[in-house]
Amino acid sequence: MQCPYCRHADTRVVDSRTADDGSSIRRRRECPECGARFNTFERAHLPVPPIRKSDGSTEAFDEEKLRRGMVRALYKRPVSDERLQQSIDQIVEKLRTASERSVPARTLGEWVMDELRDLDHVAYVRFASVYRQFNDAQAFREEIERLEQTPSAELRRSQLPLIHHSEDDDGAA
Questions:
Q1: Whether residue 36 is found in the same domain as residue 63
Q2: Can you name the residues that pair with 19 across neighbouring β-strands?
Q3: Which of 29, 31, 28, 30 is nearest to 8 (CA)?
Q4: How far apart are the C-alpha atoms of 19 and 143, rounded to whole Å?
Q5: Claim to verify: residue 72 and residue 134 sit in the same structural domain
Q6: How far is the C-alpha of 37 from the C-alpha of 13, rounded, in Å?
Q7: Distance separating alpha carbons of residues 1 and 11, to the nearest angstrom
Q8: 105 with 51: CB under 8 angstroms?
Q9: Which structural domain range is residue 115 located in?
């Protein structure tokens, strides 16, 4: 790997260890030319389906665009970078496991709202107001009322599913 400081063509790995709960490897590198040390992170690149916009066109998924939108909604809100990254990772995982060749932008937007609802209610309403194009104060009121009726993330996670899906079910009722 090229040194980011002096652009020397080769660097050596000084130390390697797992990072991000084992989903990546952090490598400590040193440049033999200038002596600078820096970190690199290696992670598997798994394909993500393109996003299908409302006009029918598709565009490649852009994690930075997702991050910018969520950061804008979370502006000056008490949410850590780590928690934001966990939410982004959750959305990317949903995209990777989607069974469709392309994921509708509307679906992606709903997943973002789901994550923001669990992160911060103010950020959720900010995002929803733009995403759902609120036109007046009544739309804000209605969304806030819906939000207040929604069980918390902790409660939703603790609830048992209404229908049990078993691997050995043969589909007969």
A1: no
A2: 24
A3: 31
A4: 39
A5: yes
A6: 10
A7: 6
A8: yes
A9: 51-153
